[in-house]
Records
---
Amino acid sequence: MMYWIRCAMLSVSVFFLAYIALSAILAVAWQQVRGRRLIENAGTLFTLRMLPLIFALMLVVLVTIPSFWSLEPTVSDEGIAWPIAVLFAASMVWVGFRGWRMFAALRQASRYFAVASPSLIGGDFAPALRTYELPDSGPNLFVAGLRRPRLFISRGAIETLDAQEMQAAIRHELAHAHGSDNLKQLAVRLCAFPALASLDQEWLRAAEIAADDRSATDESEAADLASALIKVGTASARLTVPELSMSLVPEFDTPVSDRVRRLLEWKPGSDDRGSRAAQLCLLVLPVGIVALNMFSLMSQMHRFTEILFR
């Protein structure tokens, strides 16, 4: 029994250390490239943000556990030394804190279901996205929910937007739902790291722009969405939205004028095969590095294990 407890404690501790170290490295690298606008695609930014998590998981699955199983004797008088106990405790505190924050955010979003009433405003979009109306006077629309995203529209938005603008705004939110942006936002917030806050915000901004591009298929739809953005963005008071949601005009977003200008200069969407190739390369990178150095890493991991349990 002690053998498996030590294996679990080691795995959690290595994951925690690797994630912190890799996040710090990514933060330094991001500070060097963020101002050059080299990466603007939402998918590529999200993949980049998930690299520390993916790399840390690969290190545990491909190196830490095999090293412990193959090099650590199943019968040993080694106990649980203070270094591993401290690391494991710190890891569990971090996991508990992030879990509590996510639970609070999900609970906050669930409160909106209690005050909302089903609406037929979604029209043709109703089968793909259930629509609910909120009594708030501030105009805004947002999508909340993970497995089954739902659209919330405030009374202020209904009174502010005309039919074409409303349909354009709903298409924007539908693009968020189809892109699983709330689930991605949950992953980003679960892996929050102070020095990577600017990368998190950059992904959120890119996700809004991507939803604009996916929802506008011609100049007319782009103009309708631009008009909706202007009306909602310039309103004196907007609807307060839950933390885990994607709204038409979020507080963190790029200036509304920038999004409006892009929409008014609408052009047919470009081929995104380049961004997909970049995402694939970023995903293959941690697996390749760990796989090519597996035996050397296993030996080093065994030495590290001996230090922790000494």
---
Amino acid sequence: MKHPSIRELFDYWTEQRGVRPAPERADIEPGSIRRALADTFVLAFDPQAGHPFRIAGTRACAAFARELKGEAFVELWAAESRPLVRDLLTSVAHESIAAVAGVRGTSAEGELDFELLTLPLSQSGRTDVRVLGAFAPMDIPYWFGVHPITRLTLGTLRYLEPATTGAAEPGGVPAMPGRQRRGLVVYDGGQA
């Protein structure tokens, strides 16, 4: 994670999550992430509707020179990136795993690199309802906010394994040591 907004949101999400797969939507306090808020968004996990924005920060909207609320997140992407973005959001929501990606945005004035973070949010115990994220420009050129990004292309993608701890699970039972792997816990064992 390179961008300060991305690191701040991920650290806050991790702190709010604790030992749970994802923090509850109500656990996210906008004032606690005020420096990252302009780059932050929340998506409805709705594959049929293209995962519409529920809310989007001012800098995320400025990149496209319009309000994004209600727009389909998937429709912002170039045709070749759309299946990858759908798979990314499905993995985040169903496997309760975070992901960070490099993104290239194209406008009439040129190209701009972004960093994208997607995180699961829990709502009533389900992680397939909302996705929290941040979309941060690596530089801000003179045309940013005036000439909209018209096409996004997904670049490098990395799933982030949450740190495992020996903390107690809810109910007071100590967590067993294991490694997180794509949303699953792997326990070493077998024959000696």
